[in-house]
Amino acid sequence: MLKKSMSARDIVGQVNDTLGEEFNLRASRCIGFMLDGCAANLLALDSLTQHIYRKSVGIPCFSHLFNNIGTRLRFPDVDEFLGKLHTLLSHSPQAKALFREIVGVTDPPTPNHRWGSRYERDYLIAMNWPGVVKFIEAYKSNDDEKSKTATWLRSELARKRNDGKDQVLVLRMQLAVLVDVGKIVTAACIFLEGDEPLLHQAFSKIEKFRSQLELGNDGLFKEDVALPTLDAVIAAGIGQGDDFGATADLLKAEFQDELVPLRTYAYDQIGPHEDAERATVLKYMEAARLIDFTFMRRHKYSANEVRSLAVFPFTSEEQVDKFLTEKDYYYVAARVTDRDYDFWQFWQDHKEKLPTWFAVVLDIALVQPSSAFVERVSSTVRSCLVSSQNSCLSDRIMAAALIKYNRGRDRHSLKLRYDKEELAEEKEGEAEGEEEEGDGEEEEEEEEEEGPGSGGASAEAGVVDVDMSDGQ
What we know:
By secondary structure, the protein is an all-alpha fold. The protein contains 23 helices and two strands.
């Protein structure tokens, strides 16, 4: 599936063949799919969950989603500036050393993955901006390409924009916005990259994300997003008499406008409304937080809240009734448990008194809001197996690894042995060939010395020698 592009129909066929024929998994035992949220995957998911695996849920990757939300905020000037700066630093040990000397920190690595790396780079540059400017002004190189890059960076810092603002100040403000928004987006991405069960915590994180971006219920964005780093940069600049070409309020309004595409995309995907693209998954998340004992600790669930667990296709009406029966004990147990108590330990402690809740906890824990979870088998094992099962699996994996290692060594040793034997045979053959050539030359010399009458005797002697060497 990874080696070729597949349509939704192809994906459905491949998944069904793998689960049904290779793994012999009954459709009723499949409770969920985790996937990247590309169009073909989503179409395939609809077919799988609606027609074949009807007791399963589908959770597109929310790590990718939050990353896509963050990419809606782009400042071409900053992207070009930072791109050239990092090219210079990555190709010049001299530049790295000078950067460390002037700025006082190690040069930031070029972002090589989506989770947090861009924010870390932007944060380091933004927080050390005066030193970065001094570094660019001080850097010199005899290399033509590096010298051209440094010259361009200096000219960009000295440029006056058409709107009357100094480019150096605009770059600093844009970086500040990237830091403020990046902190919000990256926190969500990093949370979703965790190893522990996350679905029961995800809805609270999404609610916090909505409030930080001030998405609201109607999508009109009446409230501004808090941008503390930008506010500090503007206040410091205006306080020092810098010519921004506008008042602080106007500048803040301009950057709020830059956030509209990002906020619109976030609202369309995960906004608090029924038409959101991920509305179904958000309902799963909202229901899943009922298994979080710290949520029950804050308030006792109503009957309607408990019935919301029926949104999961793998729960039955009979189970919902049992949830209601066990609810009071769940509330008492949660109330007397410290909020920092381990999630899994709480459910292990009370699984005998809360068997129905414990069963659904095991199912929900398997469904993660990030496809990265599937890539880490050890994470899934940690959530699914008890300690004895985990130890048994670890032993089998180690044994399999040793067998594979030893087989590899055997094959390697065998190959080396064959190679040595072949080499020895070749050398022996070459030696015999040289010896035969030497014998032939000696015979010719003897024939020339003894004359034609002595050839028969020599030939006969030669035959006898050969026969004797053959054991005859």
